Amino acid sequence: MKRTPLIPLALLLLVAAVFLAVPAMSQQDMTTVPTEGFKQTTRLPAVFAHDAHNEKAALADCSACHHGEKDGKRDNSADTSGIPCSDCHSAQAKPGKTPLMRAFHRQCMGCHMDKQKGPVTCGDCHEPAPKK
Amino acid sequence: MHALFNLAVGPLAWLAFALFILGSAYRLMAMRALALKKDASFVAYISWPHALKSLAHWITPFGALGWRENPGVTVVTFAFHICLFLVPLFLMGHIALFDAFHGWSWPALPDTVADTLSIVVVAACLYFLWRRIAVPEVRFITRTHDWLVLALVGATFLTGVLAYHRIGDNLFMTTLHILCGEAMLVAIPFTRLSHMLFGFFSRGYIASEFGSVRHAKDW
């Protein structure tokens, strides 16, 4: 019987996946708000370069965005960095939870309106990502 | 510009909706009181069956003789009014604002459909503008109010289309669009746009007189 190259192939795929996944998960390369949590999107993903944004906004406290939850309310004392937004904020609303689109809009637009800095209109976020 | 945007989507939006709803309620009640005072004998003849039958005919394209007289105007009028209502109520961008600020959400039109329908409204406004200038019998009855409301609707939809296509500074265009829309909302009870409130009653009254008194159709 001829040996199938299944195991070496699988190993090769695994290595490739790790190599591909590392840059994908690094925030340095993030150019838009992650949209994996949505089944389908109606607009272009909102432009968001994580590191450049935080440098410009002088944001050192991760929990300003990566907040936690306490008794169904936002808890800014908890730092949830590294956990994808969509893990808690699913696209479809569950009772007492904030759906993903509302969470993104409130997070970005809300802060930009408060600080009167940064994009607040549809077209200023949902635009073609700048070419690198 | 950020401060103006915040004002437009916040306090001015509340003000615009309040003036629209309360103003409309006031105008309807004031008109009812006036009708009872000056035209009580006519009010007594209001007949719901005749009114509803006539309304059914007049809200159907070409369903009334008046609509068959000038097919071009009929097509544009219906297209204009249908789009005028569909787009603001079911545009994703509008729903997203209600969703973010109040947690209210409802199904939206696909963006490309809403975009096309908005362009239809702008084109219809241009047609109405041309008619008011070029058709003598229309120009004859055109008053300042008519230009004002046409400009309000045209500007609201034009700035909306431009903002969607990201033509011009987006914050400026979007803010202008919101302010125009709010002005339009406030204008509904207090200008000729009040035909949105009174049109059905005028039709009902005419239908009642034709139906109950003259025993004739008014469509």
From TrEMBL, chain A:
Q: Which Gene3D superfamilies match?
A: Cytochrome C3
**Highest taxon listed in the record's lineage:** Bacteria
Which GO MF terms are attached to this record? electron transfer activity; heme binding; metal ion binding
Q: Which SUPFAM superfamilies match?
A: Multiheme cytochromes (SSF48695)
Residue positions annotated to bind heme c are H50, H53, C62, C65, H66, H67, C108, C111, H112, C122, C125, H126
Required co-factor(s) are: heme c
The alphabetized UniProt keywords are: Electron transport, Heme, Iron, Metal-binding, Signal, Transport
Signal peptide bounds: 1-26
Family matches, as Pfam families: Cytochrom_CIII (PF02085)
The cofactor binding remark recorded in the entry reads: Binds 4 heme c groups covalently per monomer.
Record-annotated Class III cytochrome C domain positions: 28-126
Protein name as it appears in the record:
Cytochrome C
Automatic annotation (TrEMBL), chain B:
Top-rank lineage group of the source organism: Bacteria
Question: Matching Gene3D superfamilies, A to Z?
Answer: Transmembrane di-heme cytochromes, Chain C
Q: Cite the InterPro entries for this sequence.
A: NarG-like_sf
User: TM segments?
Assistant: 12-29, 75-97, 117-135, 147-165, 171-193
Its keywords, alphabetically, are: Membrane, Transmembrane, Transmembrane helix
Keyword Membrane assigned to the entry: answer is: yes
**Which NCBIfam families does this UniProt record tie to the protein?**
memb_anch_TmcC
Q: Can you name this protein? A: Nitrate reductase
